């Protein structure tokens, strides 16, 4: 087995800004966002692609940043919760719908919902919403409030 | 008119949580911090013959490697039986054996793989009954040889029994003799996991003068301080614990675990900052999980279906170490019968060591487990008596004048109104007698009902406290030792404070992070006791503050203090409300028009200690362990495919007597969240162990949780019978949504399939197996 330990400079477009980071070939996008850019909204809930807490938006699509290498993210537009500002409909909807308790899964759900709206500007059918959101886990709520938040997000726009 | 109580106040930290600004323990990137990773046992029970750390130590970037011989101390909240790193023996698969501290996580991870451990396998015990068998191998060679922190733990020498509690009332022999109907059933519930979305993590750093700074994802910052102080003989004042937001706890973050390893790690590298992170897989198998339970239930009733006697034996599978399990055993004992009027009772609850991952508190402190057994047996009894299961429960509901299993006399304040909950849930769930209804060929719908109850079992001397300070604009800051982990307790405390001061809740700022050097001691954020314990402290701090405002006001306004009112952010004389002083002008003392200073700055302080609780009598179990009970009734409706054994959960209803609804939306969502966790646990969750006790594929891909699209229509409603001793009458409620869900689901499926399901989880495969056995 060949080991690559050295770091290379990688240029990432995150939240409309270009960042240069030194990364190993094996570094996850999630770890680079959190440890090097201080963007800790994306969470390491399992680092196995099962929980969705690390979801970010890549070119308008949801992506689990624990399943993407930092080097793979070059040349793509990455958006994290920090990039939503504090004014996005999805954020307001989650607050209004009481769609979280501990808040740890929230960033991931916000980004899936934001991507859903990017790909489906008009509210899709319920089963489409379910299909999209099944990538993510919430242990606190019973999902009822999250479903309501998605509806509210669409109602706001 | 209430200003804040009973209102839908949004959680105080809501916007922090949707903007990524809410920081959790590992969300604080720190330059130069070292990383620690664990090597864990691959066997469930083995002697450690030799550990070779030389290769790991030699790896570039590795700072230290620790094994059990570096830490002779033993840990535990009740019994000191658990080493930080295994010494000589590993007692469960996943037990930490060694720890590497390195410059970063990848290096630490790489070094962990270079450690070589030689084991000699020992017999593996995987169920309480195996552990209790004659001649069973002793998992701890001296069960009774460990130091006990509490006196009411009763390990039995020469056995694997870590503690036992007995409840005795009346004469069960005589009572069973006159019973028309008797149900006798054995139940089996395997261990499962909390699975808070935030994996446990901790950091530690030791300053040059010896202060140990710990940042951790914990429900128990003051227990971290206390246990580490005692174990390492460091004065507790030298231990400074900091808890930012916690990403879900559910009891799993109540024990002190990774904090100990973080301190050891930092100590091994001269006090440098170290973060201990574990992957999800280790969080599942190395860190403590939910108990397993086996139970023998015997219930007897007369021909009208009135319960005459219960004989109950509960065997808790506490895993390799006790942690808080003896108290969960006690908790099962005090609520062992379910919320029913039972005059003749014999119950033994045993806490038994096995070679499973050790267990700790889990949402509802084991009531979700014992309730499954009792409530399933109640449905079997209903069938025998040919009664509607809901009617059977109404007939036997505990009521004022009944004695609880620990012989506490029930009053409306103490136990609330179960009958009203049952009547209300009948409407809410559209209860139709509990019979299966055929929808089409091979498809039936059925509902199952279960009652719930729970009292608290805190230490009899648990304390809480609150501090309140003012800002120059007259708004207040609330500081408590309550951890914010999603339960909304901090917001409810802000509501209590706003109500007391008669101000808008927006004027209350809550310090969300707990800092043990700044916030007054709060026992632990567990047992749903925030509103009761910290609520009392906030009430007292508010009264203290109002008193000071009155004194300042009396001096400033030149009238007797008794005439002074404090409301709406103003201080004024009742006789002349038009002439008021705004908070902002008086809370830091008052400056008169001539410039002279009047009064003193106002600081609110309130402390609260539990009173009147007792240990249980070792022979009869008589005693009072908690301030009160919360009762309720739950219904689950399923649509089942009889051919494929699959099912869909259509609706889930809960009516709970919460004493007082202080925040309708937050309380509804908390109860629904508990119901969801219960449905997930009951329908799909369990560790899958192989015959050698190794958990198979412990990850969230194989161990499935409830996903969106699988959730039922949640219906939640409340009954309000105030608890006279609690602030505004509110009862504990935040764990309780989970309690009856497994039982209600089990009852619904048993009705749908016409079979008795007696174990969890209720997967299609499990149902198929039971049905296949019945047909052969």
Q: For the residues shown, what is the average pLDDT of chain A?
A: 96
Q: Classify the helix fraction of chain A into a percent range.
A: 25-40%
Second CATH tier, the architecture of the largest domain in chain B: 2-Layer Sandwich
| Proportion in helices of chain B | 25-40%
CATH class of the largest domain in chain B: Alpha Beta
Runs of chain B in which pLDDT lies below 50 for 5 or more consecutive residues are none
Structural class, from secondary structure content of chain A? alpha+beta
Relevant CATH superfamily of the largest domain in chain B: Aldehyde oxidase/xanthine dehydrogenase, molybdopterin binding domain
* Shape type of chain B: globular
* Quaternary class: heterodimer
- From the alpha-carbon coordinates, what is the Rg of chain A to the nearest angstrom? 16 Å
Total helical segments of chain A: 5
DSSP, total strands of chain B: 32
Domain tally of chain B: 3
At the third CATH level, what is the topology name of the largest domain in chain B?
Answer: Aldehyde Oxidoreductase, domain 4
Distance between the termini of chain B: 66 Å
Write a concise keyword list for the protein shown above.
heterodimer; A: 157 residues; five-stranded mixed β-sheet; 16% strand; B: alpha+beta; Aldehyde Oxidoreductase, domain 4; Aldehyde Oxidoreductase, domain 3; eight-stranded mixed β-sheet; 32 strands
Give the SSE map.
The complex is a heterodimer of chains A (157) and B (776).
Chain A: E1 8-14, E2 17-23, H1 29-36, E3 55-58, E4 61-64, E5 77-79, H2 89-96, H3 106-119, H4 126-133, H5 144-156
Parallel strand pairs in A: 1-5
Antiparallel strand pairs in A: 1-2, 3-4, 3-5
Helix pairs in contact in A: 2-5
Chain B: H1 14-18, E1 34-40, E2 46-52, H2 54-58, E3 62-67, E4 74-75, E5 82-83, E6 89-90, E7 96-102, H3 105-112, E8 116-121, H4 128-132, E9 161-169, H5 172-177, E10 181-189, E11 201-206, E12 212-216, H6 221-232, E13 239-243, H7 258-268, E14 274-277, H8 280-285, E15 292-301, E16 307-319, H9 325-334, E17 344-353, H10 367-385, H11 389-396, H12 412-415, H13 418-428, E18 437-440, E19 443-455, E20 463-470, E21 476-480, H14 489-501, E22 508-510, E23 514-515, H15 530-557, E24 564-567, E25 570-573, E26 576-582, H16 583-586, E27 588-591, E28 597-601, E29 604-609, E30 629-641, E31 646-657, H17 664-684, E32 713-719, H18 741-753, H19 764-775
Parallel strand pairs in B: 1-14, 12-13, 16-17, 21-22, 31-32
Antiparallel strand pairs in B: 1-7, 2-6, 2-8, 3-7, 4-5, 9-17, 10-15, 11-12, 11-14, 13-23, 15-16, 18-19, 19-30, 20-21, 20-29, 24-25, 25-26, 27-28, 30-31
